[in-house]
Design brief:
The structure holds 3 protein chains of 3 kinds. Chain A has 11 helices and no strands. Chain A is mostly helical. Chain A is globular. Chain B is mainly α. The two termini of chain B are about 30 Å apart. Chain C has a 6-stranded mixed beta sheet with strand order 6-7-8-3-9-10, sandwiched between helices. A 4-stranded antiparallel beta sheet of chain C has the order 2-1-4-5. In chain C, a hairpin with a 3-residue loop joins strand 12 and strand 13. Chain C is built from 11 helices and 14 strands. Chain C folds into 3 domains: about 190 residues, P-loop containing nucleotide triphosphate hydrolases (Rossmann fold, 3-Layer(aba) Sandwich); about 70 residues, no CATH class; about 70 residues, Alpha-Beta Plaits (2-Layer Sandwich), CATH 3.30.70.100. Chain C is elongated. Classes of the chains: A mainly alpha, B mainly alpha, C alpha/beta. Chains B and C meet through helix 1, helix 5 and helix 12 of B and strand 1, helix 1, strand 6, helix 3 and helix 4 of C.
Chain lengths: ~290, ~280, ~325
């Protein structure tokens, strides 16, 4: 049993945080790891992500315009990274909602002497882990079946790893932000994360460069860390000269913007959650079920 | 017997269908949030694919393709989540047992679900087409309106027949129903050519995916909307005839699978776990 | 027309269980194990037993949701395996704790929807719905959404749904499960009233509440581990139990009470010493024997602290037949599950 002995808060916040994070990760893994079932692995790690990337590939082929060739790698990397957003951000909100509505454990978790944010982040990390296989399958098929330009020789590993870590931090921040909203609503809570996900899919350059968006949406896109994360991942994984959203910027500038925005969004998410938590307690809706 | 005279036969079928369609239709007016969740959200996804074509430098007609695909997606989602998976939800909620023991049988209840779901989705689809047309200045000129209407109607009948067949199958598959519905998302969007002419998949692959009525329905409707430029899979009239065949086939499989489902459920006790 | 509303012969229903880590080979659970019943029209018949005794499975077979594994069952004279349509035209079912329906509909709309499945004309159905809602005290809530109902209100609504088609045979599966005392009393009162007003209608009620079976049922079958162990009227069953009534006597401490058994007419004696007193359970040949017991105690200078006569209940019948109390049997099932 991972949490058999309780750590006193006096032993230090960091240790308490770490232990809660670990238990929450373990719990999330127990709930989510059914994707290792062969059928579920096929559905979520092969069929759906490959379906997504192949739609883009066929769109690309039916147009068959010269100069669009570089977009193949763009599609593959975007589609490979997107499951982290779905699982890490939307999944975190769904974890909270299912704890509240399905497992009915939210009230007990919340009232236990643990740092609740650590619990949420642990669950989010477990969710994000389940996206690894879908991402890997998409990259492998993208490289060896579709012929996307993903070559070991041109992959910038340190850059990609830093970008990935900052990206996951951004996804967690967005997840905490969505949880802040989900904690205040009940009836539509299930669908709200999907809505946020759809909006981010449109503006963060998941499947097309944000340069084709109208100016207003382009400005909005630049304020979202996911845009910079996907841009940085493409720069790390694809060879120089590949299609990107911000061709005028250097790799270092992209990573810098990603770091700054990830930090800003983490602060924003922290604040939003503090306010939402207070409001939810004030309104008595923290453990309210939707009865739908 | 009851002191209130009960209708039987066709009158009861119609009454039962009307009864079951009611929650779906009234839901439109009672849960206004659908305007956002079922119109704005699918539109966001659809617009993303419009921008993919823009990034690829595609001609404007491809924008129309995407809007049509987004509209058709509403019907597919409705058939999957509100028809195929509905018996599974109904089983969880305790409705299915009550449906089974009611004298009208399951067919009128499924018809009601279909009619309610269709009416509900049609409004959403119209909203997506209108908003898409306004935002991206897509103009639709329908050639041969009666054929267009016939393709749409026969395609919808075949599609909901498939949904009823799936409803029984999903129930038999039990807990996997949710995952089955998920499996039939992106791969079906790909196979039916929601966002591109299905001919691009190759003739025989496209013929194979035509088992899903939306494939031929979308191809025929696109031919009628973009007659000069759309790379047709088959001539419209042949596609209409095949859709008619699919409608009959799925009506038959729906009936067969319902009987099979009810028999297996009664024999193996799959409708309930409590004893 | 058959004079029997429900008839079963050696009815057996088994389930195959799924393979699992705890149960690698799967297995077969016998839920109903050779039940034979004959329930005439017009009777309110109770199936009484602990959780997991097979009551609900028996009902599910009778309402055509399950096929019998072997044996036969007829409802309103029709075979449950082959003549499902004829049966469904004549029955209705209400289960306790059910959460059926659509949360966005109002109570009245929900009930109207179900009335349509029975082919009732809308106007007549709505009139009847209002009438029934008044009877169960839910009329004021008729425009409230189903999702906003309390469990008690929901169960009353379900009862109205079951009564709406005015079935020949009504199956009530634990109709007061999870209800508070007031709501359960209302539901029982209406069930009694419905049967009284409609002679010829039959109710098969399953319950694991003894008092409910005693209060409502013309006859009761006690069901245990899938089999009927006894069937009779509640009064006859009580009479069978431990030879009828008994006395509970509390005296100052006796330090051994076997001598009380020597009093003529005392058939059985159980004594339990407590803190400064002794509680004695006495079964007597007739009530007059108690005078001899009181005299014997007085002769030995023992003070009588209390004395009461106890009529046996179905609980006593159950204990005698099954060997333990109903709650204990429920707990045993819970542990098994």
């Amino acid at each position: 049993m991972l949490a058999s002995s309780r750590v006193s808060p006096s032993l230090g916040g960091a240790r308490h945080w770490w232990r809660t994070l670990r238990v929450a990760y373990w719990l999330g893994w127990q709930i989510e790891s059914n994707w290792t079932d062969p059928f579920l692995f096929f559905v979520y790690s092969i069929a759906r992500p490959l379906g997504s990337v192949l739609i883009l590939v066929f769109m690309y082929y039916v147009v068959g315009r010269a100069g669009a060739a570089g977009l193949l790698g763009f599609f593959v990397v975007g589609t490979a990274c997107w499951p982290f957003v779905v699982q890490g951000m939307m999944g975190t909100a769904w974890s909270l909602i299912s704890d509240r509505e399905h497992w009915k454990t939210l009230r007990y978790v919340y009232t236990s002497p643990i740092p609740f944010r650590a619990y949420l982040i642990g669950r989010a990390l477990a969710q994000s882990t389940t996206a690894v296989s879908a991402a890997a399958v998409t990259l492998v098929v993208g490289r060896w079946v579709l012929g996307a330009p993903l070559h070991v020789a041109t992959i910038h590993f340190p850059y990609t790893l830093v970008a990935f870590a900052l990206g996951i931090a951004s996804v967690l921040a967005l997840g905490l932000m969505v949880v802040s909203a989900a904690i205040l609503i009940s009836g539509e809570a299930w669908r709200m994360p999907e809505g946020v996900g759809a909006a981010l899919y449109l503006i963060s350059g998941a499947v097309f460069p944000v340069s084709v968006l109208p100016p207003v949406l382009r400005t909005l896109a630049q304020g979202v860390p996911l845009t910079w994360w996907l841009e940085a991942m493409r720069r790390g994984l694809l060879p120089p000269g590949a299609v990107t959203s911000f061709p005028q910027m250097t790799d270092r500038q992209v990573l810098g913007w990603l770091a700054v925005l990830a930090a800003v969004w983490m602060v924003l998410a922290w604040t939003a959650f503090t306010l939402a938590e207070r409001r939810a307690r004030d309104r008595g809706v923290l453990d309210r079920e939707s009865a739908f | 017997m009851s002191d209130i005279p009960r209708a039987t036969g066709l009158t009861r079928v119609l009454r039962a269908s009307r009864g079951r369609s009611y929650p779906r239709i009234i839901g439109l007016f009672r849960e206004r949030s659908w305007l956002f969740y079922d119109t704005v959200l699918p539109l966001l996804g659809t617009i993303a694919f419009v921008y993919v074509y823009k990034a690829l430098g595609a001609p404007d007609r491809f924008v129309g393709y995407v809007i049509m695909g987004g509209a058709a997606m509403g019907f597919w989602m409705n058939v999957m989540w509100s028809m195929a998976a509905q018996f599974y939800w109904d089983k969880q909620g305790g409705n299915l047992e009550l449906y089974l023991v009611s004298p009208c049988g399951l067919v009128p209840i499924l018809l009601g679900m279909s009619v309610g779901g269709f009416a509900n989705t049609l409004m959403r689809t119209v909203a997506i087409v209108v908003v898409g047309a306004v935002l991206f200045h897509v103009t639709y000129v329908i050639h041969q309106l009666p054929v267009f209407v016939a393709v749409f109607a026969v395609g919808i009948i075949a599609l909901y027949g498939l949904g009823i067949t799936f409803a029984s199958l999903f129930l038999l598959w039990g807990r996997e129903a949710w995952h089955m519905a998920n499996l039939l998302m992106e791969p079906v969007f790909l196979g039916t050519g929601f966002y591109f002419p299905v001919r691009a998949l190759g003739f025989w692959v496209a013929i194979g995916t035509s088992i899903i009525p939306l494939t031929l329905a979308l191809d025929a409707l696109r031919q009628l909307l973009f007659p000069e430029t759309h790379p047709a899979l088959l001539p419209v009239r042949i596609e209409l005839a095949i859709l008619g065949g699919l409608a009959v086939l799925f009506a038959f499989t729906a009936r067969l699978s319902l009987r099979k489902m009810e028999f297996l459920a009664r024999r193996e006790g799959r409708l309930s776990l409590r004893f | 027309m058959s004079t029997l509303a429900i008839e079963t012969r050696d009815l057996v229903r088994t389930y195959r269980t799924r393979k699992s880590a705890q149960n690698p080979s799967g297995g077969t659970v016998v839920a109903v194990d050779g039940i034979t019943l004959q329930i005439p029209r017009g009777e309110l018949f109770g199936l009484l037993g602990p959780n997991g005794a097979g009551k609900t499975t028996a009902i599910k077979v009778l309402v055509t949701l399950l096929l019998p594994t072997s044996g036969s069952a007829r409802v309103a004279g029709f075979d449950v395996a082959r003549e499902t349509q004829q049966i469904r035209e004549r029955i209705s079912m209400v289960s306790g704790g059910e959460s059926s329906g659509y949360g966005l509909l109002t109570v009245r709309e929900q009930l109207w929807m179900f009335s349509q499945f029975y082919g009732l004309p809308s106007r007549a159905a709505l009139g009847r719905i209002d009438e029934l809602l008044k009877v169960v005290g839910l009329f004021e809530e008729r425009h409230r959404r189903v999702s906003a109902l309390s469990s008690g209100m929901r169960q009353k609504m379900n009862l109205v749904r079951g009564l709406l088609p005015d079935p020949e045979i009504l199956f009530l599966d634990e109709p007061t499960l999870g209800l508070d005392v007031g709501a359960a009393r209302d539901v029982r009162a209406y069930i009694r009233e419905w049967v009284r007003q409609r002679p010829g209608r039959t109710i098969l009620l399953t319950t694991h509440y003894m008092h409910e079976a005693e209060e409502l049922c013309d006859r009761v079958a006690i069901i245990h581990k899938g089999a009927v162990v006894v069937t009779d009227t509640p009064a006859a069953l009580r009479h069978r139990a431990a030879g009828g009534s008994y006395f509970i006597l509390t005296t100052s401490l006796l330090d051994g009470a076997t001598w009380l058994g020597q009093v003529p007419g005392v058939q059985r004696i159980d004594a339990r010493d407590g803190d400064g007193s002794t509680e004695v359970r006495l079964e007597l040949a007739d009530d007059g024997v108690i005078a001899g017991v009181v005299k014997a105690l007085a002769d030995r200078d023992r003070r009588i602290l209390s004395l009461r006569k106890v009529e046996p209940s179905l609980e006593d019948v159950f204990v005698q037949i099954v060997g333990r109390r109903l709650e204990e049997a429920d707990e045993a099932v819970g542990r098994r599950e």
